[in-house]
Design goal:
The protein is α/β, with parallel strands linked by helices. It has 20 helices and 14 strands. α2 packs parallel to α5, α11 runs parallel beside α14 and α12 crosses α13. The longest helix is centred in the middle third of the chain and has 15 residues.
Amino acid sequence: MKKDEATTIKAWSGIRAENYGKLIRETTTSEDQFWAGEILRRAPEKDVLRVLDVGTGPGYFTILLSKLGHDVTGIDVTPDMISVAKKNSEGLNLDFRVMNADELSFEDNTFDLIVSRVVTWTIPNMIDCYREWRRVLAPGGRILVFDSNFRSRFFDPAEERRIREIARKEAAGCEGVYTGFVGYHIREAYWEGRPMIGTPRPEWDRNALIKLRFKDITIDEQIYREPDPRQRICPVFAITATKPSPEEEADLLIEEHWDGMGACCGAYASAAIETGRSDEYVESIGSHIAGTDILDVGCGCGLVSVALAKRGYRVTGVDCSSVMLEEADRCASENGCEVAFTKANAYLLPFPDSSFDTVVCRNSFWFFRDPGKVLKEMHRVLRTGGSLVITDNEWMNDLDAAGARYVHHNTGELGSIRVNLGYAGYEIIDDVLFRLPQNKGDYTGYLRDALSGLFSETEVTGGYRDPAVHPKLRDLVKHPFIATAKK
């Protein structure tokens, strides 16, 4: 048994477990309704949730959610707590187990929801717990943590004064004989050994969950909307985070990659606009442009969008990277152009059917995880008679891994800038890239077949020379092509 584990068991055993169990047994119907609402409004939408209650203590959440029809397992490292939980749930036949929060004996992808109530502040290795919880969550599953910054008064003088003021007011009229705040000022060896005490939360949790590649991380700083006597000292916050599917995780890594490339690509776009290379690109595809409303998919830092807007087209640019879009806004502003830039997923474009006359996509299509779905979305938002223009290169098929990395990251110097900014190293994003459909096999052949199944007048032509490519990189673009089609 780990030393920290033994310390925790000792701290929460015996009379403390019994008293905590009594407190839970005395909860009211309104309290049950409150907690059920707080949990279920943040939980995945399923009729029957597979739930793990971590640090179940006397079993409150396990009992509550089980009575609502969900399949719940409650775990706690303290045997006395599990004994109390079983006593509290007599007749319900619930699943309670003695188990450590960072060493779960469950298979991967077992649960839809992991809940924890006022427990994580006691855990000495929360990053390991979050990692383990992620493992046993099914894709789309969520963690939901309720906790508080206990003992924060020892680290924040303003907080200590606030609590002292509350204590003084409640003791007034009692001639100082008042037990509600007895011990609030006392140091204890147990909490001195808890790393989460004194750690700024929930900010720390947000950062840890980002590091572990959760998505949709939300924080509610205080869940009680009305004054509650139990929240005078330590307001309870809520943290929710979702485990992405493998496909969603790939998208998150791609988004992170382009966020990291924002500064480099922003400079590249500015230079292309300033030197006229972006204008030359628009001229090279000009015969394929229809109408005036243009959608630039994977617009990046606005190299194409700005060049089109300068010619009077009404341009909308979409990209998965917020950083890229900020750079695109800057490029448009510096060139006196109006472009509607929107963060969007190319697999689900946020526009009505038949919104655009032309859809363009430059050097982005090879990055799409589901290219067929993207083509269907492009087809959907095009008007009848509208044009699709894709220019790209068989990047990963042309080169070995080292060469592809060199091309994709432009130069060693720019790649170093990206890594030094704190984004994922090459090995992470390159692993994703080599698994994308367009980067295996016959890219242009795939595109010919896919386009002919949706569009008319389709053509995929090799040897296209992209004028916007920097002269130093042109020799590395071995198999460029242009693909065009009509709706």
